[in-house]
Amino acid sequence: MLAVGMAVGAAFASAAANNGIKSANLVYTVSPLQLTLTFDDGIKDHYSIAVPELEKRGWKGLFCIITDKVGTDGHVTWDDVRDMVKRGHEIAAHTVSHVDLAALARAGNTNEIRRQVAACCEKIKTETGVYPRLLCLPFTRWTPAVVDIAKTCGVETMLVNRNCFGDFDRRVDATIDELRARNAERTDFLVHGIRPEGGGWKPFASVEAFCGYLDDIREQEKAGKVCVCPYGGF
Ligand SMILES: [Zn+2]
Q1: The model's pTM
Q2: CB contact at 8 A, 93 and 121
Q3: What's the pLDDT score for residue 48?
Q4: Which residues of the chain have pLDDT under 50?
Q5: Distance 39 CA to ligand 1 centre (A)
Q6: pLDDT in tens, 109-134
Q7: What separation in Å is there between the alpha carbon of 41 and the centre of ligand 1?
Q8: Ligand 1 mean position, distance from CA 40 (Å)
Q9: According to the model, what pLDDT value does residue 5 have?
Q10: Which of 87, 125, 134, 166 could make an S-S bridge to 92, C-beta 3.0–4.6 Å?
Q11: How far, in Å, is the centroid of ligand 1 from the Cα of 192?
């Protein structure tokens, strides 16, 4: 926990320093938007393509893992997940089997909500040695009861400004400008598929297109508009 807090502070200070230099001429008064790069569903390409591309740019990612999917076709293995942790990336719980937790809440099935969250967290802890601090909601669906149950399982629920990238009509620069215009302090850029043949929801057109997405973020970071850092949405 301490290591994560320090990483946020260091990255933020460096982006703020860049911003300060520019502010002499451009009169920036708003701090850089804190941006977390997240990857949902434990797609194999996250390990084999996204992790090295993030590292080339000096970034860490947040990878949201469905424990029943680990080791199945097209998905990461536990060895992959352990290596990601070793390399400083963060793993979030994304439930045991990617169920709609809001639907379970409406049906009054709190035991199954608890099992989906707790068993996922326990499995991640057993396999990696690290208990996750975050719950990523399947389909981004939730109710206040879901958030409360997650808390009792020792995880905070990711609820802030999730913006999907991949096969979407959305630009990095426009999204960041819009969030800054709203004075948002943080956001979460979410990716599922990296390339069509690798699986995952709404993938980018190619690995090159995914790298272009990262390079667009890099430009925004150089301009002092964002700071890529761990998720701090609570
Ligand atoms: Zn998902």
Answers
A1: 0.86
A2: yes
A3: 98
A4: 1-28, 234
A5: 9
A6: 999 999 999 999 999 999 999 999 99
A7: 5
A8: 5
A9: 37
A10: 134
A11: 8
In the chain, domain spans: 32-228
- Quick one: pLDDT at residue 172? 97
CA of 137 to the centre of ligand 1 (A): 7
**Interval between CA 98 and ligand 1 midpoint (Å):** 6
Distance 139 CA to ligand 1 centre (A): 6
CA 66 to centroid of ligand 1, rounded, Å: 8
Q: Which amino acid is at 126?
A: T
Q: If you write DSSP's letter for every residue of the chain in order, what string do you get?
A: -HHHHHHHHHHHHHHHHHHHHHHHHH---SPPEEEEEEEES-BHHIIIIIHHHHHHTT---EEEE-GGGTTSTTB--HHHHHHHHHTT-EEEE--SS---HHHHHHTT-HHHHHHHHHHHHHHHHHHHS---SEEPPGGG---HHHHHHHHHTT-EE--S-EEEESSSS--HHHHHHHHHHTT--EEEEEE--SSGGG-SSS--SSHHHHHHHHHHHHHHHHTTSEEE------
16 alpha carbon – ligand 1 mean position (Å) = 32
The predicted pLDDT at position 205 comes to 97
**Topology of domain 32-228, per CATH?**
TIM Barrel (3.20.20)
* 57 Cα–ligand 1 center, Å: 25
**What's the pLDDT at 121?**
98
